[in-house]
Amino acid sequence: MGKFCEEVKELSIEIMGAITESLGLGRDYLSSRMDENGMQVMTVNCYPPCPDPETALGLPPHSDYSCITILLQNLAGLKIFDPMAHGGSGRWVAVPEVTGVLKVHIGDHVEVLSNGLYKSIVHKVTLNEENTRISLASLHSLGMDDKMSVPCELVTDENPVRYKESSFKDFLDFLVKNDISQGDRFIDTLRIKD
């Protein structure tokens, strides 16, 4: 497990380098803030079989606070929300299971970093009637008090700052005061209203 954690952290820094490069910020824009000073939170989830999976959720709809989440799972059960489907009313889409493939979710802090060019993924976990689903999720972000903000390089008169800065500590404070099972999302508190 320790080796997996080390390797997936290295992968997260590579992926974040590609994201920051795509934004014109360079590959190393966040590397030191995510490598030795960053946070990696590992969660191991076990979802036992459920005789009536349509009446229960493994995890309610949410987006991850992190920059990115790298997920390994043994069975399908992940669904993502496509807000553009059905004429903009949206729909849930099952993520197909491909054995041994890691899935990468964009989190709230990449949405902030990109000033909305990348969107955090709203997702949920459904249960299986016959089999136990196990997942390993590795969430990667800046350090506890390190604030993610929109870089000045991405701000113009036509594209003003659209998000407040925030840290992992701010997210934990949000969790204490809000109920994510009721649809409360951290990213919604960071969007600057026009």
From TrEMBL:
<keyword id="KW-0408">Iron</keyword>
<keyword id="KW-0479">Metal-binding</keyword>
<feature type="domain" description="Fe2OG dioxygenase">
    <location>
        <begin position="35"/>
        <end position="142"/>
    </location>
</feature>
<protein>
    <submittedName>
        <fullName>Oxoglutarate/iron-dependent dioxygenase</fullName>
    </submittedName>
</protein>
<dbReference type="Pfam" id="PF03171">
    <property type="entry name" value="2OG-FeII_Oxy"/>
</dbReference>
<keyword id="KW-0560">Oxidoreductase</keyword>
<dbReference type="InterPro" id="IPR050295">
    <property type="entry name" value="Plant_2OG-oxidoreductases"/>
</dbReference>
<dbReference type="InterPro" id="IPR044861">
    <property type="entry name" value="IPNS-like_FE2OG_OXY"/>
</dbReference>
<dbReference type="GO" id="GO:0046872">
    <property type="term" value="F:metal ion binding"/>
</dbReference>
<dbReference type="InterPro" id="IPR005123">
    <property type="entry name" value="Oxoglu/Fe-dep_dioxygenase_dom"/>
</dbReference>
<dbReference type="GO" id="GO:0051213">
    <property type="term" value="F:dioxygenase activity"/>
</dbReference>
<keyword id="KW-0223">Dioxygenase</keyword>
